[in-house]
Amino acid sequence: MNILIAYKHKIPVEKYGGTQRIIWWLGKALVNLGHKVTYLVKKGSHCPFADVIPFDMKKPLKAQIPEYIDLVHFHYKVNAPNIDIPFVATIHGNAGPGSIFHENSIFLSHRHASNHNSDVYVYNGIDTEDYGNVLLDNKREHLLFLGKISRKSKNLKGCIKIAQKANMKLAIVGGHGLSFDRRIQYKGYLGGEKKKRVIQQSLALLFPILWEEPFGLAIIESLYFGSPVLGTPYGSLPELIHSEVGFLSNRVAELVKVLKNLDQFDRKKCHEYVCDSFSATVMAQNYVKLYERVGSGEKLHSKKPVKRDIRVAYEMK
Length: 317
Description:
CATH superfamily of the largest domain: Glycogen Phosphorylase B
CATH topology of the largest domain: Rossmann fold
Structural class: alpha/beta
Shape: globular
Largest sheet: 6 strands, parallel
CATH class of the largest domain: Alpha Beta
């Protein structure tokens, strides 16, 4: 199958940029499965395993799609693109209540889909080759916050509170800040080996989100390196985190109690869980199943998905 992956930003990305990394890993996995991939992305992009076409927002989309393409995979919301070939669109974020999506939209988790009156989703997956060797028996020094600190929904404040209550060090990756507590260290934006090193040295990932997290790539990255995940039971987290790889609660005292007994989690099981369920290959195989349905003329939904008005009291007590 000849697949065009369309996204409005540049690839590859070096540091922050979850969607760019996902479409990179997806394209590579599709190629490994025997498909041909072409990217339609922002000018200045490059890729060693696929052709790249600069996305010109001033030109009609139809004029930018090569004749050999069998299916277009958009990674942004589309309504009614004027094209003559099958397409799907992965929705990576949350829209406002009442937002309407095309019948061929795909979401990132069961909860994410349900929030849009849908049951069609594909979990994100990571390219394990990008992460190199994993050390499961190495010395672990700190807890980890991994996310954009400027987003209040990621709850850095709550993360710091948990770490301080547990009297443990916390490494913060995802922005710069100032702390007068020597146990709290801001690492800035990290990528590549530096990011991998910080994750690999973490005792656990703290993920006390206060919103409808569609997926949470940081969860999968941390588990891959053998770090269990402690977070709040919101969004997709109850789907991704089970008792052998982490713990969920919106109560600080309960999270701190578990931090005092991290030996209950087997790092190898955390690592194997990601390899078995959240690899780029698994992601690509699941997308291909949907490509085939759409390619045969089927629509993924009988009616357009609509974002529900979610009323949840997101809190950490």
